[in-house]
Please model this.
Amino acid sequence: MSQSINKSDNALSGKVCLVTGANSGLGKATARELAKMGSTVVMVTRSQERGEAALADVRQTSGSNQVHLLLADLSSLESIRQLAAQFKAAYSRLDILINNAGAIFKNRQLSVDGYEMTFALNHLGYFLLTNLLLDLLKASAPARIVVVSSGAHIGGPINFDDLMQAKKYRSLVAYGQSKLANILFTYELARRLEGSGVTANALHPGGVATGFGQGEGVMGWFFKLIRPFLLTPEKGAETQIYLASSPEVEGVTGKYFDKKKPIKSSKESYDMAVAQRLWQISEQLTGLA
Model:
């Protein structure tokens, strides 16, 4: 782990971090490292069994008992609302929010709310949870929001005519759109939070060997083929850990990072009109409007 991540003991002492999708892969690795830095870490998982196993592992490997578990289905708007309410009831501050949970689906599925699952989980989940916790983040400022996107955002526009991919579903197109939505959301959020002391940045973790895409037909075969060339979850999580903890990015906001460096995202991701339209539609779909 790079020294620039600021991994010294208790560097995050007194801080409270919330990490979604924390039962495995990037999320679990992130939770472990933030716990090692002395923060209170709240891991969010969907499965109680897998969540409790991950919680025990993170506590043991980090040497910290300040690691806790909350359960939520982040593709369900009601479950996200319950998560936010439970978190606020248990914690009086939130210093770092890491929106990490995400997936790709071979076949078109609908969430419990009737939305295409990739868009529901990868974008609307981030959007609603972040907005529900914004008051706590602002009250805890300086605070940070970290959004895990992907290089897969490049090349895909937001298809407002068929956001839910009802006309023609292609898994990689749906995934790319959701990851572009992550960046548009992050940039618009950073603009709206200007002067609040809360920063928002997105990142590309790189190609990481996790359970992502497993068992998904040709896609699963492809991931199996390239697995030996992928990053470990620990290596892949370095950029999100850096954005969550490093003093080097204090006050830095509205950027897209790769390998702990700010880089340019796609041309479409800088379109403010698209970002504002996506925000308004997301407010309506999540009931925030």
